[in-house]
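User: I've been going back and forth on whether these two constructs are worth ordering. Before I decide, could you fold them both?

Assistant: Sure. I'll take them in the order you sent them. The first construct and its structure tokens:
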Amino acid sequence: MTATVSPRCEDVAWFRDGASLATTARGASAALARRLGLGAHRAAEVALAVTEAATNVQRHSVDGGLLLRVVRSGAEAGVEFLTVDSGPGMPDVRAALVDGASSAGSLGIGLGTVARLADHFDLHSVPGRGTVLSARFWPRAGDTAPGTALPGAGAADGVTRPISGETVCGDAWSVRTADGPEGARPPVVVMLCDGLGHGPLAARASRAAVEAFQACADLSPEGVLTAVDRALRGTRGGAVAVARLEPAAGRVLYCGVGNVSGFLTDADGRRALLSAPGIVGAQMRTLRTFEQPLPAGGALVMHSDGLTERWDPAALPGLLRHTPLVMAAQLLREAAVRRDDASVVVVKGAW
């Protein structure tokens, strides 16, 4: 039997920095919260938090944005937002989270109140480079079924962003757990697909890859890629990589085709994982799986070629202490380009 290692997430919309960012994001978040059944009071809290965070982006960022997402766990659904900016950063994050500390021109509730309103909150900032903030909101008691346990951050999470001018992203990622030794942490299997090109046809290919991955019985990297290759025939095809992390064996198995980058990163730096040239669904060559030891206290990072490979973990101090979502978003901020779809997925804390 398999299960997900984090709530299911759906990226709804990116809102670019501009004069209307706070107003537009506030309205969209409130409408989404109501549609998902969070209740009027909880929807108002979501809108308030989004407005404060978006106003901070407006006032301080050089190139910022806000992502609105749906998160699902069983029958329950919640709202999550993420802000990403390349502004001056925060020299003292703790001070910024003290009640009453807020930017001039914002609502004045401060990021500390945003953190309290959220069921899960994380923030990472690097002075001189930028800031990433995430906040997740589940329904309050009375809006959920009795006894419902709603999760926080999982062991895997990621983010996608479409090329400038498009509303859909041609990249997609997905994660599952697999059967492992009894009493041990289960293996985690993650797949990332970069559909060729961009726009709806690329998105169609990446959705087909996710569906094939979720239905696949053989969760070895080569087994997944073989299933995805069959599913992508008749589509544009794509670049695909699959990693299987096995805590009991202390290893990661990695197999990739095309321009998807994989890295193991820890306090000492990063190690690249190899992919072969080709196109899944069209020109997939003989597959080869590579094995590497899992780094203690480290993370697996996979990203499409919408990010350059020039990011340096040493330039982002403290990043490994944060959630996979904030890690992924910080790497997106650091290395993504606007002229291509971009996606990053991170796994940590699974071993």
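The second construct, handled the same way:
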Amino acid sequence: MEYFDQGRELTCSQCGRQEIANICCSNGHYVCDECHGKGVFNLVKDYVIGCKSKKPLEIAETLMGYNDQVPMLGCENAWVAAGALITAIRNEGSITVTDDQVLEVLNRTAKQAIGGYCGLTGVCGIAVSIGACFSVILGAACPKDQETATTMRVVAKMVNTIANETGPCCCKNFVRKSLTEAVKLVKEHLSVSLPIVSENIICKHVERHPHGCRKEKCSYFGKDTVIVKGENGVLKKYDEFFSSVYSEGVIDRKTKHLIALSASLAAGCEP
């Protein structure tokens, strides 16, 4: 990836849109945010609307596991964080959260979470996603007082949490750390208790990071993890197999996932 100190006009290689941007691949190809996340928004929305889990990290890990659709880096991961937190709060049941509010959180996140701006402005879209959850629940708006102040303070804490995990930035780490911190803030400001278990998470995305995994600097890096590089990497082959199995064909992708889920439940297999 190439990052420019000053934005330049680039043309999206998928839709042809021309716009000022700061990031492209090393071969000069540029993909706009709309094309970059095409299909992922609906994936997240459809999953969380039907999800029954009260565990935000469990929801997030499931969604981030869709390697063929959710990229390693990018604000699609902010949609994951937003959906995971607001859905867990809804499912916990102490306060009323409607499906329309879940969708509102996702829409607000999509408007302000822009890929690469963690470095370009210092505000990661994942911090914004947590703020969107609090804003919708509290009813924050420009004319409001403490509702807006609380939302801003939550976002500030998210930014600080994420800032401790840079070098290079990793959206998977940011999602996990933000949700872990957000659970504490949900308890403090909303009096909602959500389960959180993060110490046992071992990241399965180490080979996918285009800038290189932080390894031991990241608390989700397993001490026994072996990073296999090259065309014959085990995880690379698995990802290729996964993408092939779930590619569109006679049976659409969603139906394939439902069949796999049904088979898993029938076999008593748990994630």
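Notes on the second construct follow. Residues 37-217 form one domain. DSSP finds eleven helices and two strands in the chain.
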